[in-house]
Amino acid sequence: MDARQVIEAEARYLVPTYPRPPFVLTRGEGVYLYDSEGRRYTDWVAGIAVNALGYGDPEIVATLQEAAAGLIHVSNLYHTAPHVALAEALVQHSFADRVYFANSGTEAVEAAIKFSRKWARTHFGPGKTQIVAFTGSFHGRTMGALALTAREKYQAPFRPLMPDVVFARFNDLASAEAAIGPRTAAVIVEPVQGEGGIHPADDAFLQGLRELCDRHGAALIFDEIQCGLGRTGTLWAHEPSGVRPDLMTLAKPLGGGLPIGATLVTEAIAGVIGPGDHGSTFAAGPLVTAVALRVFQRIADPAFLASVREKGEALVRRLREAQLPHVVEVRGRGLMLGLELTVSAKKVVERGYEAGLLLVNAGDTVLRLIPPLIIGQEQVDELLEKLPRILEEASG
């Protein structure tokens, strides 16, 4: 099928949950994607912060091919070595003592909800079920995760949602203190908000949440699905705060494009979970975990993380120095940046396609830059060359 036929068939056969641009992507190489007409696009989206190592990485391809020649799936009824090796690597490089694997970030959040509620019930009784989340949050689209996502347009069509959720103001410790109390089972927060507009949490805010959770016997959950695993220039986005959570959710970059999520937990949380409390048929299959281990090893390399920090700092500096039209603020960390605009971010994204750039918004007025972590100087030069015209066109 040519591009027109693909687009027409999609309109006929798929549930219309996504608006897509009028081209069909067919292959990728490094930080570039190509459509069926041969047009090249520089990728500043990375599959929504997933493709940290870009496209066609030789090591990832070789690992995938080797794993595909062995076992692809046996279910969680049986032992396999790759998922144990990946769990060990995650534990050794984090606060956690144990790992639960899922198939996506939303599933990782659902596991965190269940684990923290059972932990609270086990230690404090049945009345301690409340979960505190924050304005600007995005934790997923299933019924539990959606209940924690502070977006009226996402929630409204699907109510009633999971009960006992309270929202406090992000980066406002007084608001959090008013919300967290004896009935609070868990507090969930993104160390850097993604969909909410690229807002980093203040170190003092995260430290204050840790103290409040300790005071009230609540579990602290860090959602690092988008901001974790090297995206901000440290392995985990919460590292600069010095705070250790009780649970942490991961997903997007972990599988190198294959579906995998993970919920990392302390021994105290894991100790209340037993066989039958939770599970997944497909999670942590030997193929996806073999690839994920290779991805993790690459990103966890201190030299790789240092390069992300250096590139992110240089990009922020150049964006600010460029004094781009209709840009009022540049914020974020590492290669997770947001440009606050005075024009429609969706219009900027649309003009970007015409200029050969794949861009993504984070709300109505924020342009989100979350490229593959291997992005280079040439692609930054191209972005800064094209952005002024794209921004001006979007203002018309």
Structure description:
48% of the residues are buried. The chain has 14 helices and 17 strands. The longest helix is centred in the first third of the chain and has 20 residues, at 105-124. It is of the alpha/beta class and 396 residues long. 39% of the residues lie in helices and 18% in strands. The strands form 4 sheets. The protein has a 7-stranded mixed β-sheet with strand order 4-12-11-10-7-5-6, sandwiched between helices. It has a 4-stranded mixed β-sheet with strand order 1-2-3-15. A 4-stranded antiparallel β-sheet has the order 13-14-17-16, covered by helices on one side.
Key words describing this protein structure:
396 residues; alpha/beta; Aspartate Aminotransferase, domain 1; Aspartate Aminotransferase, domain 2; 2 domains; seven-stranded mixed sheet; 17 strands; 39% helix
